[in-house]
């Protein structure tokens, strides 16, 4: 007996085989057609979304989550706009990254190709449905989407519109497949579908991500957890430090590249900590510090050990005072999640050492951690920010959704 | 309580932090020092290996496996030579793959860096111990090695010599850590050590690899399974086809890039199948074919369904006759393991289509599949041949043991 999920897997695999032969022009036409259908289907999508909203309200969903779930005409137009923007991006597929002649005359090239079938497991943000499709489709992949059960009606309506857009361009509708059975069991089955799914990308909270990492036999790309630090070095421009810290903490609190913890060299702590405290008070940020930090301001409460490892995603920040550059690096490498880390310094050697020694996707000198983002890095839309080291690290744009194959041109070569 | 494996993990992580700062010169000196120590310790290593051999003989180990386990003076010299060859290879670490200025003045570079801690799980080939160390060390990684229990004395002696070589160059001896407790439980614990180990590479048979894929929460790179096909197209040069098939099947039978299955276009089947059969008979190769193939030679026995998916690693090959190019692609994409696939054709369009449509790490036109190998591709020594699509595909040389980080140079930038 072939299960529901295996059927989806096998349909996606077949569709992905077709997609490897699409030209960039075909893919761009597909994206524009889908964008058009999303706009055409606005009313249906809104009606279906309303069902999800009502059910969520009845289940007592919190307003912040309700807001993520809710679609509006504007949000649907933004989805369509997102797809049009992806159509404009360069197509990475087909690029030959290198090609060499071997002594025996073999010509060996390394060509960028689609991954095949991408699985995305996410929570109740229906806009991910269109975004993830757009990025996977532009790179010649099929996508299997498993969104939260709270958003199932919205997701079905969006996927229906996407399929309609594909159909009108005579492209396989199996390039997007929604797991409509949102039973918990289907997620676990999806995580074991390594014969069909080439990579699984979880998008959501830490709980979702660790469950996927623990259970999946499909290769996973971990995304999104950011316990980001800013280290104010002995040689920092203190005014710059305060401006950057304010930005990194308060410009948007609930995002993965927001700053969650400060590390301050003790030689500048007495001067800079009160400046930081005053600035962050403007944004109602609660500050938790180690023993030394607390001695520099009455507005700092004592941090517990678990504070150092916490991604608050909220108006809270921790402060640790260290007696050396080395201690700062040690602290950050112990507690960071491999996302974005910054040093504020005017010292040449420390700037370079920080970039060498800190183990993270993005290591900044004298800039806000908030820049770790596909658009800010110039890649365009992203499917997530990878915090692991294999395959892709940092913002994952189109290239992260490709792999390569070796293409070898011979004329009868055999191995001696 | 910190477990034995966690202690190893934490020591490896600490050593890997030191290794990111090593210069190429330091690493090359380390490799030469270790090579020297291996030679100096030849007698001890041989004595310890003899213990393993005796125990294996008492346990009735087969002679082919005994041969893999056995070390000789020559084999130890070859290990040392391998390390010297790695010293000569270009160091990929530190290369800035791209660097761009953003409109706000941020300079964002993508720099190649070590992965961190590499775990290798392998069977009873003690030479893997030195090879894996050499590749990981050259790329600034620490390595945790878990070899087969049959080789434990040999591995201890080799690791002792490696550590001695590191010590003499004042480099951390924790850059190589051997799991000395070869209890089955330590392997499973190793597979769950994702807080310390950044990537796990299993090297061995299909059973070992699938057990690691099923159980590991550490990202895994699958290696080595090769159900490789050669497709003889309607437009093939048949003499070339027979030469290449002979080479790919018989030049070395037990290796992952050997050819295991032939797909023949029916318009040339009558002519080429007897030629192939005659040539392969010279090497005592058993041939199993589908119904059509059997009609062209009495030396072909009937293949079962399971033959199409079998990597024989032996003097056996299967033959399938197809009625079109498309059917050949379909057959190969259904049964191949993503390793190496070849077409023999003089037809331009079919050659390019085959390279486009076949999903495998290495896709050949008119050459033997036996070339999929780090040395043949010009990368030097390899840590394995990846058959998955994430991170690294095909022969994995030094670059596959690196990741990248974004290094960002600012002068006070904050996000609007």
From TrEMBL, chains A, B:
InterPro entries: Ald_DH/histidinol_DH (IPR016161), Ald_DH_C (IPR016163), Ald_DH_N (IPR016162), Aldehyde_DH_dom (IPR015590), G-glutamylP_reductase_CS (IPR020593), Glu-5-SA_DH (IPR012134), GPR_dom (IPR000965). GO terms for molecular function: glutamate-5-semialdehyde dehydrogenase activity; NADP binding. GO terms for cellular component: cytoplasm. Residues 12-286, 311-378 form the Aldehyde dehydrogenase domain. GO terms for biological process: L-proline biosynthetic process. Pfam families: Aldedh. It is an enzyme of class 1 (oxidoreductase). Pathway: Amino-acid biosynthesis; L-proline biosynthesis; L-glutamate 5-semialdehyde from L-glutamate: step 2/2. It is found in: Cytoplasm. Keywords: Amino-acid biosynthesis, Cytoplasm, NADP, Oxidoreductase, Proline biosynthesis. Its EC number is 1.2.1.41. It catalyses: L-glutamate 5-semialdehyde + phosphate + NADP(+) = L-glutamyl 5-phosphate + NADPH + H(+). Belongs to the gamma-glutamyl phosphate reductase family. HAMAP family: ProA. Catalyzes the NADPH-dependent reduction of L-glutamate 5-phosphate into L-glutamate 5-semialdehyde and phosphate. The product spontaneously undergoes cyclization to form 1-pyrroline-5-carboxylate. This is Gamma-glutamyl phosphate reductase.
